[in-house]
Amino acid sequence: MAGPVIRAERLSLRHGKGCALCHAPDFVAETNICPQCGTVWALRDVSFDVMPGEVFGIVGESGAGKSTLIDILDFARDPSDGAILYAPWKEGLVPVHDATAQERRYLRSFEIGVVHQNPRRNLMMGVSAGGNVVERMLAAGNRHIGEMRGVAGDMLDHMELAGRMDLKTGTLSMGMRQRVQIARALVNSPKVLLLDEPTTGLDLSVQARTLDLIRQVHRRLGLAIILVTHDWSVLRLMARRAIVLKAGRVVERGTVAQLMEDPQAPYTQLLVSSAL
Amino acid sequence: MTDPILSAQGLNKTFVMHLLGGRKIPALRDVSFDLAEGEFIALVGRTGAGKSTLLKCLVQIYRPDSGRVQYRDRNGAQQSLTEMGDHALLDLTERDFGYVSQALSVAPRVGALDLMLERAVGLEPEAARARARGIFADLALSPALEDVYPVTFSGGEKQRLNLALTLMGAPRVLFLDEPTAALDPDTRTRIVDVLLARKRAGISGIGIFHDMEAVAQLADRVLEVDKGGIVAERANHACTF
Ligand SMILES: Nc1ncnc2c1ncn2[C@@H]1O[C@H](COP(=O)(O)OP(=O)(O)OP(=O)(O)O)[C@@H](O)[C@H]1O
Ligand SMILES: [Mg+2]
Ligand SMILES: [Zn+2]
């Protein structure tokens, strides 16, 4: 059996130096703030494996550390401790912190695509939808403008944005911007797609359509998806396995059915019982 | 004698409700039984007895507190479902188990037949479509429903679509939570016929039934569940309802 594509190994991200108390391996606290030194542990000892072609969920409320985790998985920032191991790149699972700056650029351009919760982090609002997609191909070293326009146009067609290629991104609706982000994330055929709350804040009908497009992409390309969400119905529809994050820590892990039907941790029980 | 296809050994399950001050709800106690290959077992018992909990503990939607569930896979190897990693567990159960719950949960705005086609593995599109249509018709679902979003289905239609989705794959063991509840007698007969055909093809099953006619037709053995335990067992031919 093939091994994981990506592994998070005891990731921690702290804001502050920490002290003897909060660095102790068995340190636990109610919040992610050390009561002694005030260091914020945005993530603490987070581990998981994602298998090729699987949709893996990360669940938690705001402030749980989900977007921080996405940034680390996107190599936009380094963890304070722990490692990301990544497989398709070289033989076997390789820790990414060993990579050179150039290798990291390669990973971010070709191996990993990201859709941020806030489209402004990925998209230039004053540039056309097509331009935003082409920009990513340029970043990957492509120089043939006609070819790039063709590929970008196809990607946008798949995202049901046919005919919108030359419209300024800032004039598009939220749902469309989200789909431009997805087209952009997919254009260099990554092996892992990171989705940070891809449908939060969208109207329900737009949400259903966006999720359907993501499902189609997943079936067609067979890539692994890491999906951050606080919405259990989105999780159930999309993902097979998940972790539940609270104050930067994994409080529970399992299949989505297990987490939803037989939650064990008090926090998971609270979240599941609060779902509509 | 060959090993059973599925074996439950000393299953216990107690729910701990943290939101209610840690209240404990015992649901299964020391449940053991074997399912032989090709056998159908009917679970009967009062409401709240623990029948659905038992099915979910078998397929690992609920994690038993103690005890084991052993499964003999297609290659004859014993797999311990209670000790397996969750990724391997899903690979195995998605391929080999057909669990049909009472609730339908499917993608919004996808038609019924398309949902079935998503489950077709290793079939050419035309063959998959023919198979899906066939199952649809066998379960007495009207062809007019094929492209309808299931959100508008009646209770009985949803229930049958759930079974249809499961039958699109090639499960070796069926786990059925009241597959004939809420159906009129004619439709119920159709479902029982479909299940009987699967049984004749060598599929094993365990199901919860309140309908004694279905039990009489389908089950080789009846296990009675009460207060989370198996309190009686009888071979079906020996019983009269
Ligand atoms: N996820 C859960 N969390 C807490 N308690 C649960 C859970 N699932 C079941 N129970 C409890 O376990 C007991 C057994 O329930 P179960 O659903 O297994 O009964 P059943 O025999 O299938 O009943 P019915 O015939 O009404 O479907 C009940 O007291 C139920 O409230
Ligand atoms: Mg039940
Ligand atoms: Zn500290």
Classification by helices and strands of chain B: alpha/beta
What percentage of the residues of chain A does DSSP assign to strands (E)? 15-25%
Largest sheet descriptor of chain B: 6 strands, mixed
Span from first to last CA of chain B? 31 Å
Radius of gyration of chain B, taken over Cα atoms and rounded to an integer in Å: 18 Å
CATH architecture level-2 label of chain A:
3-Layer(aba) Sandwich
The description of the largest β-sheet of chain A is: 6 strands, mixed
Shape of chain B: globular
For the largest interface in this structure, which chains are involved and how many residues does each contribute?
A: A-B, 27 and 21 residues
Give the integer mean of the pLDDT values of chain A: 92
Helix tally of chain A equals 10
Oligomer: heterodimer
Detail the poorly predicted runs of chain B.
Answer: none
Which regions of chain A have little confidence, pLDDT < 50, spanning 5+ residues?
none
**Cofactors, ions and other ligands in the entry:** adenosine-5'-triphosphate, magnesium ion, zinc ion
The total beta strand count of chain B reads 10
Structural domain count of chain A = 1
Summarize the structure.
Chain A: GO terms for molecular function: ATP binding; ATP hydrolysis activity. Chain A is α/β, with parallel strands linked by helices and 276 residues long. Chain A has helices at residues 20-23, 66-73, 101-111, 129-139, 145-158, 174-186, 204-221, 232-238, 256-261, 266-274, and strands at 6-15, 40-50, 55-59, 81-86, 94-95, 112-115, 192-196, 224-229, 241-246, 249-255.
